[in-house]
Amino acid sequence: MNRIVLLLSMLCMSVSTQPVIDQRRFSIAVSKVQHLHLLAQKYFSDFENSLQTEDQRQFNKFHQDFCNPDNIIIPDNKHETQRSSVLNLLLISKRLVDSWEFSIHFITWNLFPRNQVLHRLSDLKKGIQMLIEASDGAEMSDSITLPVTPFGNFYENLGGNESQKRNYELLACFKKDMHKVETYLTVAKCRLSPEANCTL
Amino acid sequence: MVAAGLGSILFLLNIFAVLPVGSASLEDVPQRQPHLIGCVSANMETFHCRWNVGTFQNLSKPGDLRLYFINKKSPLAPPLDWSECPHYTTDRPNECFFNETYTSVWTYYSVQLQSRDGYVLYDEDFFNVQDIVQPDPPVNLKWMLLNVSVSSSYYDIMVSWEPPESADVEMGWMTLQYEVQYRDVNAEEWITVDLVKSTHRSLYGLQSNVNHEIRVRCKMLAGKDFGGFGSSIFVHIPSKVSRFPVMGLLIFGALCLVAILMLVLISQQEKLMFLLLPPVAGPKIKGIDPELLKQGKLGELKSILGGPPDLRPELYNSDPWIEYIDLDIDKHNDRLSEHDNNFTVDHSVSDNRLLGFRDDDSGRASCCDPDLSIEPEVLNFHPLVPNLSRELYSEASQSCLPIQSLVTEAPGSDEAMYTQVSEVRSSGKVLLSLEDQAEALNPSSQNTEKNLESKKKKTYSDFNLDIPDHSAYTSVLNVPCSGQGSQSSSSSSVKPDEMSSLNRNTISASAPVYTVVEGIGIQNSLVLTPNFTPAPQLIIPKAMPTPDRYLTPDLLGSVTP
């Protein structure tokens, strides 16, 4: 009897401490992705300002949603995001970060700090991986790790205006996807711990 | 010709100036076709698009203009046709509202403003919903006083608010940044504070008695556009006007304290100086006046120090026996008291004379030198005796009081008088050295021998130690009195054999021999101490320092026996 009580108490303790650890990890992951999002927004804005007005309009006009050519359905509104599980949100986030670790190399703009961004991306991926493992989703993450198919004319050696257009699109997509990951992780964090004071 | 040319140029210029104006007047209301104002989302769940009919007022009726859109969610999706606005807003014209069904974030939207028949494309726009978000303003703005400055002219407040409900921050759907602006209501420009992610912000250094207006707005984190401002709040804190100016009182009190301190310092300056810088005790040698040193009269100093240490009465100023002669005659007590006073007075006078002593012998002073008539120790003694003789003489002449009566105690008493025996004649006469006053007082008794011997107007007195010749004696102890008669003390006289011994001891060296005069014997003879060891000869080395130099202790040792 005493052993059972002791075992139950230890189990309860381990369970109770778990959310605390996850909350802190989530907070760290959210702050990292927020910083990446701000960086992406800054470099896209700088690149946009370096273009001529006419080019800006042209690029914006033809800016299609081809950032992630995967078949994975990702929530694209509040309702669907609310419906998704924490694990699903984590998996999708990890997937997006993976794809950009690959695609970031195709940004040829010389003012873009590729190495710094890559370092941050890999750091974020590790944090998300830890959260996935904490949510017992390690086995599921492997199934989604499909090779990222590049879209469009990534491998083509474009020149001149085409190169500028590709940089514009890549930077815009990078900014968008970072916003996605930030939203998903924030929703997952606020859902896990209501007392995390998400009203801040 | 020239004038005509100028005039034509001016005319043309005027035309050109007028023409744009004219054209402006023609196009005063510019012909502007219907156009999209913009599409805006407040909560990333819905959005609306608005347009303007422009100058085409004939198209202001609903339905004259149509909005079409395409939403491409995935590049792999089949190409879609243009769809018309799902809902034209009824509250206001020229607006199309897209509800949650038709709103997808992170997807591509293309919107076109067309004519009713669709043949005319007036305007189009491309966007993603997350890029057109303009959040609703924060709500429930309030403020709290943090602190007020000492002078109550400035204060700090904490402003707090709540995020707009539409943003659904609790769920984590939107992450917002807030911007606070404030100003004096009378001012034109707003002061903008840095963006914060929290729902509160401190404002420092707001002025009292000024009405401040504060407003807040927000935008998405890394978003492009701000939302609108919420309703402003007004803050006004009056400054406290105290009846008593505290600062003025403090300053006044401080000034008074400083003034009192200064007064105390000035009044007690000497005491403070004594406390802070206590005087250092200077060297003091008894019998030597520091003034002597200051005046530079080192000669006197040297001679003062140059004498035998034993016979330096000036160093024994505190020795009472020099000052006072203890007389044991009752019937003459009153007179004695007077004489005592005289002694003390004279002694003090003699001290002054002693201190003003000038050594004129240029360092040749020696005990062997008969010219050295005035020695300090003798001086100390002499003034007593001559003065005594002077006073007593005047007294004794009246009352025939022999001095010998005064010295009757001499044999039995320990107190004795010193003098310097300058010479002992073979005839038994002892020559003592005296002061000038003695001679002056007893002019009748001047001895020719003394006159011859004295070089410096010093007088000597001959003491006949044998059967005396009364008339020949002049000494300090010798007071001629006609009525003396048989009055005689029991003092003994120096025996001849003692005298001879004295002669032997003294005359051979022809140097002054010191002895103690015990008293005056019969017939005014000196009674000397028989067994007194004569003072050793005072040998002054040739290497004696000049009067101008100090006599150092080592030299002093060499000159002293």
Explain how this protein is built:
- The complex is a heterodimer of chains A (200) and B (561).
- Chain A has 200 residues and is mainly α.
- Chain A has one domain (28-137, 147-192): Growth Hormone, Chain: A, CATH 1.20.1250.
- Chain A has helices at residues 2-50, 53-61, 78-83, 86-103, 114-134, 138-144, 161-192.
- In chain A, helix 1 (2-50) runs antiparallel to helix 5 (114-134), helix 4 runs antiparallel to helix 5 (114-134) and helix 4 runs antiparallel to helix 7 (161-192).
- The longest helix of chain A has 49 residues, at 2-50.
- Chain B has helices at residues 2-26, 246-267, 269-276, 290-295, 298-306, 320-323, 333-355, 376-381, 384-399, 403-406, 409-412, 436-441, 448-453, 496-507, 553-559, and strands at residues 35-40, 47-52, 65-72, 83-84, 95-98, 108-115, 121-128, 139-148, 154-162, 176-184, 191-192, 200-207, 212-220, 233-235, 417-424, 429-433, 460-464, 513-520, 526-528.
- In chain B, the strands form 5 sheets. Chain B has a 5-stranded antiparallel sheet. Chain B has a 4-stranded antiparallel sheet with strand order 4-3-6-7, with no helix packed on it. Chain B has a 4-stranded antiparallel sheet with strand order 11-10-13-14, with no helix packed on it.
- In chain B, helix 7 (333-355) packs antiparallel against helix 9 (384-399).
- Residues 21-26, 336-358, 371-414 and 435-509 of chain B have low confidence and may be disordered.
- Among the domains of chain B are: 35-131, Immunoglobulins (Immunoglobulin-like); 139-237, Immunoglobulins (Immunoglobulin-like, Sandwich), CATH 2.60.40.
- Chain B is α+β, with helices and mostly antiparallel strands.
- Chain A: This is Somatotropin.
- Chain A: GO terms for molecular function: growth hormone activity; growth hormone receptor binding.
- Chain A: It is found in: Secreted.
- Chain A: Pfam families: Hormone_1.
